[in-house]
Amino acid sequence: MTPIPLTIVFSEPVTGFQETDVQLANASIESFFGEGSVYVIALMPNGIGTVSANIHRDVANDLAGNGNDAAQQFTRFYDNQNPTVALTSSSPNPTNNSPVVVAAQFSESVEGVHESDIICTNGRASNVEGSGTDYTFDLLPLDQGVVTARIASGAALDLAGNSSNASAQFSRTFDSVGPHVTSIVCNTDSPTSVTLIEFSVAFSEPVFGVSESDFRVESSGGLTDAEIKGIDSRNGNHIVTVETKLGNGVLGIDLLDKDSVVDAASNPLGGPGSGNGDYSEGEICVIDRSPPSTFVVSPNGDYISDSPVIDLYFIAEDLISNVRHVRLFYRKDGEGEFSEYSGMFISVPIGFDTSNLGGFGTYEVYTIGTDAAGNVEPAPTAPDVVIRFQNRTRAAGWNHYK
């Protein structure tokens, strides 16, 4: 209350009492009136803190001329400041705690904090406890997602009757649902002949605690000694590298849930309990380290034609992956090294054009195949066929080749 009213009562009528006879601290007199034995003044505080007034002896006289005794000091603590309040919690953000215990700390002692003063979204406040400057309440989330609470303006009063200011909004993201694996994809082209194979493991949300021990290598065929060599993160996914040392076959990885993988709210993979987050439906990778086998089968021996193009037929096979293409190599009349004929071929026949080679003559030929995994067939020790090419009719345009 401002100003502060102060009534001064003498034991009998006095004279000579004036405004300047009142000695003040942290205040000034706004008004002064009275006579006889009763005087009333209004004190205007200078600021927050203790306001005091003193009346010393002999500042006024009764009708017989006797001076007054000193009065007992008058004091009041002046406070016109509204209390503030801050909301905090030891629960992390995000959290799977329910309820979330929220602490409300006021800047000074207050009274009158009730559940109805707490405004919530996606939550409900209950169990308000405390006194003075420190209160707590339970914030119960109603659903997954952001939960907020704030204390409304005027929720509490301090000892001077000042109403509290509204708090800033408190929020936590409530998450009680465990993450799960959404996919395991083989990053390495399949089929492949490389040693290190990468698998990309994606989760439904960011997770922590992923380690090599959470995975099991699955292999079939002739693969031996396949093992996990490391895990790193890339583009939000976890990259598992598996080393395959020997053999051919099919490779994959499974994730085994041991509740060691958790999300930011500490929910374990698949929820509490080992095994409920297992994943064994990932992509596989075909490992092929065996080269293909190709062989020219015809023509072989004497070959008579009016055309300079020899149609070569070959067979190609691969035990694991398909043959990607074959290349043709030739040598004429046993001279020099074998040369590669231009082109890569995937179907028969290969049209072997001898026009630029002089036409008639003896041609040794063989093929080298490359499979889908990149394995290259080694060159044979002998040609596949030997073709003795001659023209039947010596058609026009051929004589100059010989």
What summary fits the major beta sheet?
5 strands, mixed
- Elements, N to C (H/E): EEEEEEEEEEEEEEEEEEEEEEEEEEEEEE
CATH homologous superfamily (4th level) name of the largest domain: Immunoglobulins
Question: What distance lies between the first and last C-alpha atoms, to the nearest angstrom?
Answer: 127 Å
- Round the mean pLDDT to the nearest integer and report it: 94
* Domain tally: 4
Classify the fold: give the CATH topology of the largest domain. Answer: Immunoglobulin-like
Strand content: over 45%
Per CATH, the class of the largest domain reads Mainly Beta
CATH architecture of the largest domain: Sandwich
Structural class: mainly beta
Principal-axes geometry comes out as rod-shaped
DSSP summary: helix tally: 0
Total number of β-strand segments?
30
Please describe what this structure looks like.
This protein has strands at residues 4-9, 22-25, 27-35, 38-45, 49-55, 74-78, 85-88, 100-111, 118-121, 123-141, 145-151, 157-158, 170-174, 181-186, 196-203, 207-208, 215-221, 227-234, 237-243, 249-255, 262-263, 285-287, 293-298, 301-304, 309-317, 323-332, 339-345, 350-353, 361-371, 385-390. By secondary structure, the chain is mainly beta. The protein has four domains: 4-78; 85-174, Immunoglobulin-like; 181-287, Immunoglobulin-like (Sandwich); 293-401, Immunoglobulins (Immunoglobulin-like, Sandwich), CATH 2.60.40.10. Strands 24-30-29-26-27 form a five-stranded mixed β-sheet, with no helix packed on it. It is rod-shaped, with a radius of gyration of 49 Å.
